[in-house]
Amino acid sequence: MQGNIDQATKVREGEHISEDKLRKYLTENTEIDVRQLEILQYPGGFSNLTYQVNTLTDSFVLRRPPIGANIKSAHDMKREFDILQLLHDVYPKAPKPIHYCADTSIIGAEFYLMQRVEGVILRNKIPDGLALNQGDLKALSISCIDNLSALHQIQVIDTPLASIGKPEGYVSRQVSGWIGRYEKAATDDINSLNMVMDWMKSQIVSETGIALIHNDYKYDNLVLNPKQIDDIMAVLDWEMCTIGDPLMDLGTSLAYWAETEDHPALKPFNLTWLPGNLNREQVVDRYQTKSNIKLDNIVFYYVFGTFKVAVIAQQIYARYKMGLTQDKRFADLIHVVKACGHNASKAIKLNRISQLNKS
Description:
By secondary structure, this protein is an alpha+beta fold. It is built from nine helices and nine strands. It has two domains: 19-115, Phosphorylase Kinase, domain 1 (2-Layer Sandwich); 134-350, Aminoglycoside phosphotransferase (APH), C-terminal lobe (Aminoglycoside 3'-phosphotransferase, Chain: A, domain 2, Alpha-Beta Complex), CATH 3.90.1200.10. Helices cover 37% and strands 12% of the residues. Helix 8 runs antiparallel to helix 9 (333-350).
């Protein structure tokens, strides 16, 4: 199996970093050799901006908040850096953190550096030169869910990781919190989401356990071995990681787990709709087998996850509507919001999470 390593390219307009300022800062505050410095940017992504920083001897990833963002809790670079410091020793698939900078005068925002893990990342299409058949995709989808289950089984109680979240009342707090975020960011009156909000408030479930949860676990946050695509080398984007009910994490992953019949607006986020992948019901079956957790209320978790994805898209779309960012990709996110509302409301009506739009 051959394939291109995930490639960073030239920096997008309006998102440049001053090489001179970064070189001077790194020289004065780190031991990184910056005599030859190259800054590139990774494609895709609608949240934190991610750059590749190449030096004479090494390659790093730089993460900073998006342009125009004013949601501190969702783009807290220091928190993400600290989580990686706690996590790397107990979960080696978390990239090694290198340095955090709080000085916003260097690149216009706080940022941190982590070690770059070289591999393939599946974004909105299969990379050129990478041949994947249905067997490969099935193996990847199984490995993806097995790895999520393993992540949820990391010991967190009575460890330093317990400090990163408050598991008591997590489900109720998440439902009310995301509803509040949606109401603040709403630009359109979407009936399906109004119904979903009322339903969630009336269907709050009890916590199933306490676990480390990623909160954005999907294919484009996995670094894969190009020679064996189901070998997960690293898990990226820990900005929303916390401690809470593992099934809320699974619900978010299911929301991103697009199927063939789903609206096209939902498909760029995860290539799970390609033939060979498990469908959402099969994902649940696999997770239940690996975790030994009963999933009696999976519709609730899927609906919550789908609503959360809608809110994330809505917040970014609202920033675009207000002129806080000029990224043209954001103009289409309202279609993601509406498609999520459709899927969540159909899941409630049909009492299932898979094949929601099959005629």
